[in-house]
Amino acid sequence: MKVWTYLAGVALLAGASSQADATISLFLQTSGVNNGNVTYVGASNSNLFTYNGNYGAFSIGVSAGGSATGADFFTQTLDTSADLAGSLTIYLVKSGLTAQPASLLSTFTANGYNLVSVAESTFMNDIELANAMFDTTNLGSTYSVSAPSAGTDDSYEVAKYTVTTADGGGTANSTINITAGAVPEAATWAMMLVGFGLMGFMLRQRRPANVTFA
Fold first, then answer.
1. What is the DSSP letter of 35?
2. How many CA atoms lie within 13 A of 126 on its CB side?
3. Taking a C-beta distance cutoff of 8 angstroms, is the pair 80, 163 a contact?
4. Which residues is 78 bridged to in the sheet?
5. How far apart are CA 14 and CA 49, in angstroms?
6. Rounded distance, CA 136 to CA 121, Å?
7. 14 phi, psi to nearest 5 deg
8. Residues 75-117: pLDDT tens digits?
9. Assign residue 96 a region: left if phi > 0, alpha if psi is -120 to 50, beta otherwise?
10. Tell me, what's the pLDDT at 2?
11. Cα(120)–Cα(111) distance, integer angstroms
């Protein structure tokens, strides 16, 4: 089973009591904690999730949010630091989506000190949306990756960070923003159809009259 499928399953269970809004869940993974397996940390049914704490050798601060039921998902702040060499993987899962975007755009940013690398990825269900890899040569840069069509069964999104520190540790500040493509809503389509209908009616009424000459 793919790891993000497992993550989404736990996230959906965590948010089962509230279907009105999407659920944002946090999972962490590092060697030496929980036998190196993915650990569920917590979830929020509001449009904003925040967490500050320690996991293994890492200190973590994260803030994530987005639209209540739509595809927009922003991890505005992700601060990680460690005093030792090591690797930490962070999964932020937004589940309970009801909107169906035609396409998604993932934007990645990473900044850090004394790091080996910061890898960032986004996923939707079992479809990989986009990837970006950051290392010490391009930390501080921003990359935008347009995703293909998101599919027809979009119930969750995953923003994944993997932070690797060198001897002596390091600090990272990174963001992933997932935004939906501009797609007209049902009400907008209805208004457009009504508008076209009115235009057709008016054109029919303005037909020139037939003139007969003796």
1. G
2. 6
3. yes
4. 62
5. 13
6. 17
7. -65, -30
8. 988 899 999 899 999 999 998 887 666 677 888 888 888 888 8
9. left
10. 64
11. 12
